Amino acid sequence: MGPGPINADPRVLRAMSAGLIGQFDPAMTTYMSQTQELYRRVFQTRNEHTLLIDGTARAGIEAALFSLITPGDRVLVPIFGRFGGLLREICERAGAEVHVREIPWGTVFRPEQIAEAIAQTRPALVALVHGDTSTTMMQPLDGLREICDRYGALLYTDVTASLGGNPFDQDALGVDAATAGLQKCLGGPSGSAPAAFSPAAVERIERRHSVEAGLRDPGQYASEHRIRSNYFDLGMIFDYWGATRLNHHTEATSMLYAAHECARIIVTEGLAETIERHRVHGAAMHAGVLGLGLRDFGEAQHRMNNVVAVHIPEGVNGDAVRADMLNDFAIEIGTSFGPLHGKVWRIGTMGYNARRDTVLSTLAALESVLVRHGVSVPRSGGVEAALDSYRAAGNPA
Amino acid sequence: MGPGPINADPRVLRAMSAGLIGQFDPAMTTYMSQTQELYRRVFQTRNEHTLLIDGTARAGIEAALFSLITPGDRVLVPIFGRFGGLLREICERAGAEVHVREIPWGTVFRPEQIAEAIAQTRPALVALVHGDTSTTMMQPLDGLREICDRYGALLYTDVTASLGGNPFDQDALGVDAATAGLQKCLGGPSGSAPAAFSPAAVERIERRHSVEAGLRDPGQYASEHRIRSNYFDLGMIFDYWGATRLNHHTEATSMLYAAHECARIIVTEGLAETIERHRVHGAAMHAGVLGLGLRDFGEAQHRMNNVVAVHIPEGVNGDAVRADMLNDFAIEIGTSFGPLHGKVWRIGTMGYNARRDTVLSTLAALESVLVRHGVSVPRSGGVEAALDSYRAAGNPA
């Protein structure tokens, strides 16, 4: 019940134990195409270039940024948590001239702040996190497309923590590039990064298209303006996933099965229903921690559905509480990074763990551990508040 | 039965369906440490910095080369197949001044050729493939350490195709950095890259050590000489796998389980026994294709145990034969890349597929398909030659 990775859906684990098939076996390429179509529905996009990056969520981020950024490009990174800092440093490593704007952790940007920063910096790319688990905040993206269009900037966002558990409509928002991971609301293991790219993003990437030596005729071997990474060269990855099926890496087949199953489960449940499930169980957990007398962190109206942060009560050893939760109840909760390390606990309700039983068990266990640590806690305050929240939501299972 | 990926060992597939655990759960970090110890035995090394890169074999290559190469470094890449070309282009993208030496596909370098090239180019790093599946050749590495030492060069080798199926003793050979993948002789799925780094390699990497913003105190945030990739910054990955357990990516837990099981199976069978199994079944397949009247490609004495290439007989449509093998017998065999595309078939016997039944079934099926395609083939010539080869090896199961 931490901020992710979380318990994977058993169906996803089972999917990974299917036998492997050759990477250009028609069964395999069909499976790849199906996966693309499933993720178009999860990202809510028609983008042809919707695919998986073989690596963790961070690999997806790096593939997008290294492929979109030509060294020297100006990039604007609005930072409201740790993962904004990660975007900054990946942009720096990609050779960008990086401009950042930072606001206090626990808040999000107002559109006019971003508009002003874009007007000042005239970036080729705006890169920002959608939901930053370090603070549990979700940055509203409405209106950013229009602002970016005014200055011809592309818009990238990291939806690792938010996708599947919070509203995200890539095409309606006009997001050019979005990358995710399986280990949050998608209910799978870390190790595959679904990603989707708009035609404008693809156009910018294809300008630097190159073909690996030994695959086609040597004339197509480009040596200038190549993307700084081979593994994350999206032009090559597009060739691998697209009609040409040009060899690049060897697709991580078991992770493809996992990614496929994660999306299939969501599409079967219904994307709107999946998001609503996250909202309901997240709200119950939020009500529950407040019912235990804990104080939530950050602007509550901008909290992601799937994770809540609470201040660790004064005088309480946060790590000792976490250890007791893990050792006595086999329930993991998190702390956070940097300025929030040891200051907050983060409790997740996402993917397979966004359930009534997990929410109530976590609150009951937390109450008992807090009591043992000398915290004055209303008896059953967490469980009762969560049950009230469930009742108000029509008492879902 | 292609050049890899191959059918994974069922035990590996089963291992992936185990439930996930938190990334800093003591059970997880213990499991990471066990995995490191298992791979020390597979690489035959005492290198403390033995770990997994989260991505395919190519991710391991890029992590090693991006972390070992400072832009401007001279690097020597001896090329004897497609994957040497890949090393070249990754080194170029890492910003190296790359010097290559190329020899005809189907041959390997003599040590004096490499010594001469090192003397001429004085590289900071020599990067070469151990076994290149595109040609099936395995480059002998003996003596290269001494040659590299003469000029202070580090030695990197890609053992993706060879490890576990052919002799490779990292410490005895004095290899500074070696990276692999699971999908060949290790008998697992693509998606995790075991890698091992000598103290000299670690020393070079640690010179450019940096810490991600938001993780520790800001004073340690290095902005100069940083490695060009965050995802592949081995200094950070060492911090994640080492005693400090500093957060980097979210470890791909299911792939860790797979990698762990691949190595556990090999260590249980015995590394020497596993290699011998590859030798015996590879020799039977080699004998078998010769027994079918096919002509092998490349210098037979330098062939890897686990894959054999044969010339496609004149007038035969190689892809049609491959399609019949796949559609009628569910057996995949490969062709190759670049100059060998459509010229050779490549048949693998590796990992879980290095077995008597798979070898004999493949040869029987191939005979039947060749006959259908009008090739004059000695009746049962493949199976009988393989059986003779098995008898000469003491008739193993």
UniProtKB/TrEMBL annotation, chains A, B:
<dbReference type="GO" id="GO:0008453">
    <property type="term" value="F:alanine-glyoxylate transaminase activity"/>
</dbReference>
<dbReference type="InterPro" id="IPR015422">
    <property type="entry name" value="PyrdxlP-dep_Trfase_small"/>
</dbReference>
<feature type="binding site">
    <location>
        <position position="346"/>
    </location>
    <ligand>
        <name>substrate</name>
    </ligand>
</feature>
<keyword id="KW-0032">Aminotransferase</keyword>
<keyword id="KW-0808">Transferase</keyword>
<dbReference type="InterPro" id="IPR024169">
    <property type="entry name" value="SP_NH2Trfase/AEP_transaminase"/>
</dbReference>
<feature type="modified residue" description="N6-(pyridoxal phosphate)lysine">
    <location>
        <position position="184"/>
    </location>
</feature>
<dbReference type="InterPro" id="IPR015421">
    <property type="entry name" value="PyrdxlP-dep_Trfase_major"/>
</dbReference>
<dbReference type="InterPro" id="IPR015424">
    <property type="entry name" value="PyrdxlP-dep_Trfase"/>
</dbReference>
<keyword id="KW-0663">Pyridoxal phosphate</keyword>
<feature type="domain" description="Aminotransferase class V">
    <location>
        <begin position="27"/>
        <end position="205"/>
    </location>
</feature>
<dbReference type="GO" id="GO:0004760">
    <property type="term" value="F:L-serine-pyruvate transaminase activity"/>
</dbReference>
<dbReference type="Pfam" id="PF00266">
    <property type="entry name" value="Aminotran_5"/>
</dbReference>
<dbReference type="GO" id="GO:0019265">
    <property type="term" value="P:glycine biosynthetic process, by transamination of glyoxylate"/>
</dbReference>
<comment type="similarity">
    <text>Belongs to the class-V pyridoxal-phosphate-dependent aminotransferase family.</text>
</comment>
<dbReference type="InterPro" id="IPR000192">
    <property type="entry name" value="Aminotrans_V_dom"/>
</dbReference>
<protein>
    <submittedName>
        <fullName>Alanine--glyoxylate aminotransferase family protein</fullName>
    </submittedName>
</protein>
